[in-house]
Amino acid sequence: MRPRSVRARATLGASTVVALALGAASFALLGMLDGNLMRSAQADAERQALSTAGLAAAGRLDTVLAPGRDTDFLQVVDADGRVLAASPNLAGRPALSPGRPGKPGTVRRTWEGPARGDRRHRVVQVTTVTGEGLVTVYAGTSLRQADAADDVITGALAVGVPLLVLTVALVTWRVTGWALRPVEAIRAEVAEISDRDLHRRVPVPRSQDEIARLAVTMNTTLDRLEAAGIRQRRFIADASHELRSPITVLRTQLEVAQAHPDPALWGELVSGALEDTVRLQDLAADLLLLARLDTGEPPPAAAVDLADVAREAARSRRRDRIPVDMEIAPEAVVRGSTLWLSRLVTNLLDNAQRHADRRVRLLLRVDAARRTAVLEVGDDGPGIPAADRERVFERFTRLDDARSRDEGGTGLGLAIARDIATRLGGSLTVEDAPAGARLVARLPLDSA
């Protein structure tokens, strides 16, 4: 029974609220009107009763009483229940009340009319002391005006309230439909967008409201999806190209070995095939790590001493063609995993050694003011032009493509290093250096 559309729920909610508010207001209005008319009738009757009681106390009471303009009847009864005086419309009638007051006072009540049974009366009973004992005066005023007003107001409200609720429901239905029309247009457009139509965008209404901001946000999301799709297709194409080259070379070597079964050539062919196999293995490992980094899983959160990781990575390169000079702070504990941090340092050192002429420098320091560990890797090679300082972190990017391929670079090392730094809450940038290239990674220190 619950409406499923926002339009129906808004209409039902608005109608219900208005109906409840109008119902409460109607009851309050009827109560106030009835109370005011009741008080007015009571004041008239009380005034007439007090006046008549004064005449009885003074002994100047006539047997036939003339009610005032706003009073319907009068009756005076002694302590024994005998009617001493009455208005003409109660002539010959017994006492209005069988009860006898035991002391002077005033009582106000509502009776079904003693003079006319079809109307209510507001009766004021005043008991006073006379020379012959207690005398009770009954003065009544008809509530016909109050009843008639109640009937008129009730009839008007019975017709007006449903009409007003119906009007509110109709207006709410129309206004809600008009307000939700852009949402429906956005929904229809998004429903037609497939993975091949990510260039399409939803219409943005001219109104500067929440729906317009929703449309802008939706288009921004589609922009990101389109960019991600482009990057994914480019990544697949680049990965296919990178894999094809060593596979082609490996196949050629195997075909040569099969066509020329000369044992003297097998050593060189096997060595080349092994080299290409290692290159394929490294490329597959890089692609697998990138896929894991792209999944969005929470990064490792263990406490790791980056100084130990950097020191171990530098020591393993003592016998390389280009050694690594290191200057490492004693402690730099960060949050992450030893595997990720080792891969970060290794990739930076591999890149530096690949392009250095004679020297690679590894520096690790702690920035206490910013609570970060700063890892710098520099080389004395040709450096990185300012225009390419961001492009080098793109996947499969090589500034010197031929030289990088010959030296075993896949174009994924710096991309992986930046992804690791970013996932650990840090950054990796290329910064100015007197000579060569200088890459700086900043990682937040462990708060513990």
Give the ordered list of helices and strands. HEEEEEHHHEHEEHEEHHEE
Task: Please name the CATH topology of the largest domain.
Answer: Heat Shock Protein 90
Strand order of the largest sheet: 2-1-5-4-3
Q: Quick one: how many beta strands?
A: 12
Report the uncertain regions.
401-406
What's the number of structural domains?
A: 3
Superfamily (CATH H level) name of the largest domain? Histidine kinase-like ATPase, C-terminal domain
Q: If you had to describe this structure to a student in words, what would you say it looks like?
A:
This protein has 448 residues and is of the alpha+beta class. The protein folds into three domains: 6-147, 2-Layer Sandwich (Beta-Lactamase), CATH 3.30.450.20; 210-291, Helix Hairpins, CATH 1.10.287.130; 300-444, Histidine kinase-like ATPase, C-terminal domain (Heat Shock Protein 90, 2-Layer Sandwich), CATH 3.30.565. The protein is 51% helix and 18% strand. A five-stranded antiparallel beta sheet has the order 2-1-5-4-3. A hairpin with a 7-residue loop joins strand 3 (105-112) and strand 4. Helix 3 (210-259) packs antiparallel against helix 4 (263-294) and helix 4 (263-294) packs parallel to helix 8. Mean pLDDT is 83; it is low at 401-406.
